Every structure is written in structure tokens, then in C-alpha cells.
């Protein structure tokens, strides 16, 4: 076990090393500031040990799980969601807002005309199961670029349509994961429209992260400078309610 102090020292002296192998984001001042907060310690540690831009393994069609199991919410309970599902999500609008130059409000039809990426990946749930599925969706980067993420933004928050008691499910990721090439808002699973139980009409795939980060039923994507004002401030439903790690890299 490396001590916290040793890690901090290593992080500070290895600044050049941090920057050298990485992308444009890493070089931006706001991103470097994000790495200096205490909450970023495990993120910084993993960043030193692994290449966070690396792709998650992809699989062949024959390796797909016969059934992609559903977990957590299987159907949001609200009348509003039921109405959207009943007409095939024709009136669903995804909002992209927060710290962006041009807030977006896009229909599923519009998202369907955007370039799509298809990837066969393994989903790992902390509850002890995995499944391999083929996901198709719009790269999150395309939506974020269209909206124009402002330099002050450090995190992307996903607001979902399903209730957990008094709150709705939410999750967040940093900009490295948000702009990762395999990070998509998926509308397709195994060659079909995304089923309700797996998050229709849109769910996040963030392939270097554990299952609970993969927000289903996404209705709003918000760019923020801090997670402090989101839910209980830990960055996600399970992080706030059950002390799950915000940084769930795999
Ligand atoms: N909105 C929402 N997103 C969610 C959940 C949820 O309950 N609600 N559960 C999470 C968990 S713990 C996992 S493992 C995956 C499950 O995705 P699946 O139902 O497609 O298997 O969704 C994640 N995203
Ligand atoms: Mo999970």
C-alpha cells in the first residue's frame, strides 16, 4: 500500500510525466486544477498507473451474452415516462446544458441522424455479475462539442428519469471519460432499439467504469464545475446513498 503522502509527493513531482502521454484535455488549465483537489486523489493515482485514454476490450458478436440482464430500475414508474414509452419516445428530448456555450434540446430522431458508434463490451456490476452486449449510440463527444463545453466545466452529470424514493438516479464522470472514444449515449442493444429495462431511450456507456456509472433513462446532460451542488455532493446516487466510490475505473 502506497501512503497518501507518498502519492501526493509523487503526483506533484511527476507533473511532466502526467502531461506527456496524454491528450489535449490534460493540458488545459481547468483540467489540471481538477486534478489538484483532494477528491481527485484516487483519480490521480490511477492516472499515474494506467492510461485512461486506453480502450476497454471489445468482443466478437458470438461472445455476446444470450440475454443482457437488467439491474436497478427496470421501468421508471412515472406516468410521464409511461407516456413517452407508449409512443416510442417520439417526444423525448435530451437536454445538454449547464456550462456550455449553446444549450441543446434534441429529439431521438435528431440523435438518430448523428454518427453512431457500435461496440461489443463487457459490463461489470459490483453486485457480482457481468454481461457482454453490443451497444450502438452517439459518441458523447459529438453532443458536447455541439453544445460547446465551457473551460470552467470539470464534470458531466447525467440526470435520469427514474425515481429512487424522493430522488432521481444521477451519475457523473470527469472530462477524460466524457470525451473517451467509447463513451456513448446508446439507443441500441444487440442490433435492436434499446429495451426499457436497459434504459430506453438513451443510456450512458462509459466502458472504463463499473456498472453503476452507466446511467440509464438519461434525459439531461449537465456540464458543471463542481459536484458539490449535485444531490448529496458525492457525484452519484449510490455515491451519496451508499458510499460507493465516485471514481469507479476498471
Ligand atoms: N437510471 C438508472 N441508471 C442505472 C441504474 C438504475 O437503477 N437507474 N442502475 C445501475 C447499475 S447498478 C447497473 S449494473 C446498470 C445496469 O444496466 P442494465 O439494466 O442494462 O443491466 O445500470 C446502472 N444505471
Ligand atoms: Mo450495478
Order of helices and strands: HHHHHHEEHEEHEEHEEEEH
**Mean pLDDT reading:** 87
Write down the domain tally: 2
Spatial order of the strands in the main sheet?
2-1-10-5-6
Radius of gyration: 18 Å
CATH class of the largest domain: Alpha Beta
Report the uncertain regions.
Answer: 1-26
If you had to describe this structure to a student in words, what would you say it looks like?
The two termini are 19 Å apart. Mean pLDDT is 87; it is low at 1-26. Strands 2-1-10-5-6 form a five-stranded mixed beta sheet. The chain has helices at residues 4-13, 15-20, 24-27, 29-34, 41-49, 79-86, 108-113, 140-147, 175-178, 237-242, and strands at residues 93-98, 104-107, 117-125, 129-139, 155-164, 167-174, 184-189, 192-193, 203-205, 218-224. It contains ten helices and ten strands. It has two domains: 1-49, no CATH class; 53-242, Oxidoreductase, molybdopterin-binding domain (Sulfite Oxidase, Chain A, domain 2), CATH 3.90.420. Helix content is 27%, strand content 26%. The chain has 250 residues and is of the alpha+beta class. The structure holds the ligand Nc1nc2c(c(=O)[nH]1)N[C@H]1C(S)=C(S)[C@@H](COP(=O)(O)O)O[C@H]1N2 and molybdenum atom. Molybdenum atom (MO) binds at residues 71, 125-127, 211-212.
Offer a quick outline of the entry.
With 250 residues, this protein is an alpha+beta fold.
Which key features would you list for this structure?
five-stranded antiparallel beta sheet; Sulfite Oxidase, Chain A, domain 2; 250 residues; five-stranded mixed beta sheet; binds molybdenum atom; disordered N terminus; binds the ligand Nc1nc2c(c(=O)[nH]1)N[C@H]1C(S)=C(S)[C@@H](COP(=O)(O)O)O[C@H]1N2; alpha+beta
Amino acid at each position: 500500500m502506497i501512503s497518501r503522502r507518498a502519492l501526493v509527493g509523487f503526483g506533484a513531482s511527476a507533473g511532466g510525466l502526467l502531461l506527456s502521454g496524454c491528450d489535449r484535455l490534460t493540458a488545459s488549465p481547468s483540467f489540471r486544477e481538477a486534478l489538484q483537489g483532494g477528491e481527485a486523489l484516487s483519480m490521480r493515482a490511477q492516472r499515474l498507473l494506467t492510461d485512461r485514454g486506453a480502450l476497454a476490450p471489445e468482443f466478437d458478436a458470438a461472445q455476446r451474452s444470450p440475454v443482457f440482464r437488467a439491474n436497478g430500475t427496470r421501468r421508471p414508474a412515472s406516468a410521464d415516462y409511461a407516456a413517452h414509452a407508449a409512443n416510442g419516445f417520439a417526444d423525448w428530448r435530451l437536454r445538454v446544458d449547464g456550462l456550455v456555450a449553446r444549450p441543446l434540446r434534441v429529439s431521438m430522431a435528431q440523435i438518430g441522424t448523428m454518427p453512431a458508434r457500435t461496440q461489443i463490451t463487457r459490463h461489470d456490476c459490483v453486485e457480482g455479475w457481468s454481461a457482454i452486449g453490443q451497444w450502438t449510440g452517439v459518441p458523447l463527444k459529438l453532443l458536447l462539442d455541439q453544445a460547446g463545453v465551457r473551460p470552467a466545466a470539470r464534470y458531466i452529470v447525467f440526470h435520469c428519469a427514474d425515481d429512487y424514493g424522493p430522488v432521481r438516479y444521477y451519475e457523473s464522470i470527469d472530462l477524460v471519460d466524457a470525451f473517451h472514444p467509447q463513451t456513448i449515449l446508446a439507443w441500441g442493444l444487440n442490433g435492436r432499439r434499446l429495451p426499457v429495462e436497459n434504459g430506453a431511450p438513451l443510456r450512458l456507456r462509459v466502458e472504463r467504469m463499473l456498472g453503476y456509472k452507466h446511467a440509464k433513462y438519461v434525459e439531461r446532460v449537465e456540464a458543471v464545475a463542481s459536484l458539490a451542488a449535485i444531490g448529496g455532493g458525492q457525484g452519484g446516487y449510490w455515491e451519496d446513498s451508499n458510499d460507493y466510490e465516485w471514481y469507479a475505473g476498471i
